[in-house]
Amino acid sequence: MAASLGRIRHLCIKHCVARSLSANLKDSHVFLCSRKGFYTCSQVWSGDVENKPVKAEKISKAMKSYMERAKAYNDFMQNEIEEYELGKRHLANIMGEDPDNFTQADVDKAIAYLLPSGLFDKKARPIFKHPYEIFPARRASQFGMDGRPHHYLFYTGKPQFFEILHNISAKHTELTEVEMTERGKVTEKKLNPARFQKLTKTALETLTNETISPQHYLNFCILMDRLITHPLARRAEEFIVKYSKKLDLGSQAVHRITPEKDENGREYIRADGKRKSSRATVTVYDQGQGDISVNGQDLTYFSSMQDRNQLLFPLQVVDKIGQVDISCQVKDGGLAGQAGAIRIALAKALCSFVSDEDIGKLRLAGLLTPDPRTKERKKTSQPKARKKVPWKRR
Amino acid sequence: MEEEPKEFLDDDYFGVRKLVTVKSLFEVGAHLGHKTGCRDPYMAPFLFGTRFDLDIIDLEQTKVMMQDALNFAAHIAYRGGVILFASRYRQTLDIVEQTAKDCGEYAHCRYWRGGSFTNSNVIYKGATRLPDLCIFVSVLNSVFETHTGVIDSAKLLIPTIGIVDTNCDPRIISYPIPANDDTPVAIKLYCELFKQAILAGKEKKKKDQLVN
Q1: Which end of chain A lies in a sparser environment, N or C, as judged by fewer CB atoms within 10 Å?
Q2: Which domain does B179 fall in, by range?
Q3: Cβ pair B126:A169 closer than 8 A
Q4: CATH code assigned at B175
Q5: What is the mean pLDDT of residues A134-150?
Q6: Quick one: A125 and A6 in the same domain?
Q7: Does residue A104 sit in the same domain as residue A161?
Q8: Which of B94, B107, B131 sits opposite A153 (nearest CB)?
Q9: Global pTM?
């Protein structure tokens, strides 16, 4: 059993190393084939009635080299898979499980049990997975039997990425031509560029399976911006969405809460708000007289004018002073923090009683944005967060 | 002695010579060169003269050289050769790439990595078949020096066709075509001509295979 476990440990280490290497290196096989040209298969006697030599198909040197590499890779993977399957059976035997029904989840559990690791990084711990998950996948052949590349931009070195750039540019030219013919008759609305989030560099790299330099990515961004801001971009929306994400207004929309009814049959909305360490719950009754109560007291709970104005600010913006009744429960923090907590809770509650335009006004006034500021920490060798000990020249 | 292939017996086997006319070249402004101060001395034989300090290219010479180049391109296409269109003139990048796409050949109008031909095993990750013909729609790169591809093609004995303007060096190009390489309309015409020549070569190949 010790010998089997040692073997498994060896395979785990191999998998760990292979995985970390594959993360850094892409599939880079270098061959020193210096002479370009064709490789002709030797003439074959067909053994036919005519007894004539059949001229075999010409394979280019490039293709021959690729086929050799592909064969080497396949042989290697075959070997690895055999080792993996055998190792899996050993592991099942060690654990006392049925080797035929030993799944990958069982394997992972067994490895964690047999080879416990205190390492922090999960990727550094022993792994035992199928070779297809460990070793990087080979890229399919880039050219045919005659050596002619499949992609028309093969010689640029990044065919997929430059094809994307070409397509975006071609689309833009197409739209411009249409615009020329329809001059003066265009009625459709432009696209809102803020709603289209271009693919990130890493997303583009995964899409094309090629590395992209920051300058190239900048080119991509510029081209996409030009296309999205074209007057007729709406006609190319389906194409634009291939290389960008359309953002829903949902992220901007406010969730209106349906009012509940209390024991007297009055409709009310309850909302929460916080500022620094204060927590507030505000209950707003529509069609009221302007009664305000904070923790049982009226507005005189706040002795300072500034704090009272904080409370009334949302009502001012939507013109509801004297038209709603408010009841607040607030705890923790100081008076100013409590006032801020009530303010945002009140603004959130009012959204459900008020038109979309007024919600926009509230948003523009900044009343719907929580204030994330907290007290800055004191630093060492300083008396306070920012105050420093007097600086002496010598 | 082996019989010469029949495509070499005819001067215009693909019928591409009639595609070029001085009139069509003139209409797109192919005769307009750069200022006399920018002139490359080796372009002097191809100039008709100067006017208002602008060099004028002799279109009669251009026509003949363009016909030879088109014929050569058609022959290469006839034999299934890999043809690479190259240019570093960004304004006409799309036209050149589209031309290559349309005639089933290849284009490289982006930054030319040093060693693309001479170190191709590293650049393209493995043995690769290099082009059998390079067509330079603009022979200069973006800093007005000769395109590295022109020099590397000469090193590797890859034949080249190049549109040479009055500020270009035509010496190491196999089939130079003295013409204006800055006007997009002119570039469109040249690309159209190359495309037709290549497609004519491929068509003829298909026909000749059917006959055999």
Answers
A1: C
A2: 21-207
A3: no
A4: 3.40.50.10490
A5: 83
A6: yes
A7: no
A8: B107
A9: 0.70
